[in-house]
Write a structure and sequence with these properties.
294 residues, alpha/beta, four-stranded parallel β-sheet, three-stranded parallel β-sheet, 11 strands
């Protein structure tokens, strides 16, 4: 059984029914019932807007027991590209090294999975399997937004598994048991956390997800202690793995010059509405990210 499955929950004792979350939900997934907020799972896209705006911190993300943060023995950490951005200009190789120092059996960046995703996406666009404007399938909150609110654009989504799933498939095949039994995806957001556990294919699913927020202090403490006293023992991650999370990097990696890059779930919804109304037919590719800043 996978451990560490995340889910959005409401601490009802803190909720005062203020409607802040209801007003920002992009899919109208929240209702106020008997003075308390309530999310409808079939409409929730895990974008985290309710978490961001709740002044009472009533919305929260819970992780099932399994203690992946404290018991990391044998756990191979697979780092989402956004992880590297949390540490500014620190050596990415040193960040990889830090995961081993805080108890992981090792850490892998996602360069291989990202390269394979780009290859498959390029082939898909060239073959006409999707309809332009092509919409990136990497951000699960955006994919769910299309499914819930813009179903007419489903044929525009690139029919390619997201990079984190591709990476899980590759690692399970490479490791053939052993550490492959304990793949841990280190994630920056709720949407990717849930998508990594409930993957499209069993081979692409992770056994655990660990929120980056739960590891940040331990990693930062090691990095501050270590400083730049000696070169990292780890090879430097690929530029693709480090830059991918920044808006525009995906279009660059795919070699698309005239793409439309949009971040922030409400801005994404506005762009998708334009696409649905046929106003973006000259745009070849929409790179969309739920989170502001990628």
């Amino acid at each position: 059984e996978p451990g560490g499955r995340p889910f959005l929950t409401l601490r009802s004792e803190l909720c005062v029914g203020c409607t802040h979350c209801l007003r920002v939900c992009p899919t109208e997934a929240i209702r106020i019932r008997q003075g308390k907020a309530e999310a409808m799972p079939h409409r929730c896209i895990q974008c985290g807007e309710c978490l961001r705006v709740c002044p009472w911190e009533a919305w929260t993300v819970r992780v099932d027991p399994g203690e992946p943060v404290r018991q990391k023995e044998g756990c191979l950490g697979v780092l989402d590209p956004a992880v590297f951005g949390q540490f500014g200009d620190r050596d990415p190789g040193r960040v990889l090294e830090a995961f081993s120092e805080i108890g992981f059996s090792g850490a892998r960046e996602m360069g291989e999975g990202l390269a394979l995703y780009c290859q498959a996406a390029g082939h898909s666009m060239a073959s006409g399997k999707a309809v332009p404007p092509y919409i990136s399938s990497d951000c699960p909150a955006v994919v769910h937004l299309v499914q819930v609110k813009f179903p007419s654009l489903l044929e525009n989504l690139l029919p390619v598994a997201p990079p984190y799933e591709i990476m899980a498939q590759r690692l399970k095949k490479e490791l053939e048991g052993g550490t492959a039994q304990n793949l841990c995806y280190v994630v920056p957001c709720l949407a990717k956390a849930e998508a990594a556990i409930e993957a499209i294919t069993a081979e692409g699913a992770y056994h655990r997800v660990i929120p980056m927020a739960d590891l940040y202090n331990s990693l930062q403490a090691f990095l501050l202690r270590k400083g730049e006293e000696s070169p990292s023992r780890r090879p430097t991650p690929s530029n693709l793995a480090v830059e991918w999370a920044f808006p525009g990097a995906q279009s660059k990696a795919l070699g698309i010059d005239l793409s439309l890059t949009v971040d922030g779930i409400h801005q994404v919804a506005g762009v998708l509405e334009l696409a649905e109304n046929g106003l973006l037919e000259e745009v070849p590719f929409i790179e969309a990210w739920s989170c502001p800043g990628g």
